[in-house]
Amino acid sequence: MSYGLLLLRVFVGASFFGHGTQKLLGWWGGYGPEGTGGFFASLGYRNGVLMAVLAGLAEAGGGTLLALGLLTPLACALIGVVMLNAIFSVTLKRAFMAGSELELAYLVTAISLAAIGPGRFSLDRAIGWDDDLSGVWCGVGAFAAAAVVSFVTLTFFRTKPPPQTQ
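-> structure tokens emitted (166 positions)
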């Protein structure tokens, strides 16, 4: 089980680190803050560049923490914020298998990892925090924190809903 958790944590964490650095630095074929900010603005977010930077920091920071197994519930909450925003601002209006399934899979994976804990090969375990930072309430807490932050972001930091897709 420990090796499986390590593989899952490192893969998901590295994936989010990559997505975050696309937004922050334009790495891996990304558009950087300006290009990504334009996309965020087209979705109705106020100050698209700032929102792109915040999303990039949440992805890169959460991904790094998750890959390391450090502050795992916080890492999962950061990933959850980005996925909930993506679901509700971009993909929800599409059919399930034509839009939101990847974001939902990442969200469920992150919340599950918050509940399960980082496993034996983690910095949380090396520090002795793994018992304190895992369990069903860590999963519930990570999801609740992500939901609150996402609600605030979607409600107060958007000027208009995204354009309807046909």
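The mean pLDDT is 92.
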